[in-house]
Amino acid sequence: MTSLTKKLALAAAVVAAPLMAATTASAEGEKYILVSHAPDSDSWWNTIKNGIALAGDQMGVEVEYRNPPTGDLADMARIIEQAAASGPNGIITTLSDYDVLSGPIKAAVDSGVDVIIMNSGTPDQAREVGALMYVGQPEYDAGYAAGLRAKGDGVGSFLCVNHYISSPSSTERCQGFADGLGIELGNQMIDSGQDPSEIKNRVLAYLSANPDTNAVLTLGPTSADPTLLALEENGMAGDIYFGTFDLGEEIVKGIKSGVINWGIDQQPFLQAYLPVVVLTNFHRYGVLPGNNINSGPGFVTADGLEKVEMFAGEYR
Question: Is 153 helix (H, G, I), strand (E, B) or coil?
């Protein structure tokens, strides 16, 4: 195959990847299953699906995405057990609640399945369950860095809109932010739920009852998008300090317009893509990175939006 033909073939593969059923990419060879804690309603995970699909295509392996439809962690634990029982070469999984998920993950490792922890959990927890490594963003550290940034910008109080309060990783983001500011978290974190209308109403109610709130912190598109609508409704859009975790189409628009000060990019594409590459090379050649991989945090502001806008919701 000529060099030009190779380039064209690669380009075609990259373009075609998102057009596939993003949850599955089939090929001969090894099989890897990614299990997340995300409910079907959370569109942020589309980037994760694209990441494993592209990695599976490029590495010539079979990949599959599984998740609990409602985000129920007990359901996720069962999915991990079922995934391990199906005999894959490896499992890539989030560790959003150690108490609920560590047992099934340890059992998978004990059965001979190689595991990489991604997205949530910590490197220490990954080591405790016997995983090969951790790929993700340390959530407390990311929240702390965001808090330090906000403190430097004059923030002294905030509302943390937690749309997934059952996940300890989400609470770590809010706690880290409070600690970075040097203040108590207290009642500044609310359980917003995941229904967009409820989130908007609860944000409006909190800001009405606490008019001296300096800032709003959201934990992803699920809570950020309704919060944007709430701030438009009460006239605070552009006037209150607004930071968010993760990226999405509406978040990018908010950053561009100046309503959102920054978004924390944990690079979910890498969290899905890299474990497939690492596992494949480990099984084929016995090579493994010596350290865990931190995919974030990185702060996205209005100054660096060009590629983020181009790939938001797809690879960013």
Answer: coil
Distance CA 17, CA 216 (A): 36
Token output for 20: 């596939």
Give Dmax (Cα) for the chain.
67
Half-sphere exposure of 75 (CA within 13 A, CB side): 11
Q: Could you read off the pLDDT of 254-307 as tens digits, one per residue?
A: 999 999 999 999 999 999 999 999 999 999 999 999 999 999 999 999 998 988
* CA pair distance 290, 95, nearest whole angstrom: 21
Q: Report the alpha-carbon angle 37-200-46, nearest 5.
A: 35
Q: Could you give the CA distance from residue 95 to residue 91 in angstroms, rounded to a whole number?
A: 12
What is residue 264's three-state secondary structure? strand
Q: Which residues pair with 263 in a beta bridge?
A: 244, 300
Structure tokens at 127: 């080591």
**Taking the chain, what is the end-to-end CA distance rounded to the nearest angstrom?**
32
What is the per-residue pLDDT across 75-131, written as a single tens digit (0 to 9) for each? 999 999 999 999 999 999 999 999 999 999 999 999 999 999 999 889 999 999 999
DSSP state of 191: E
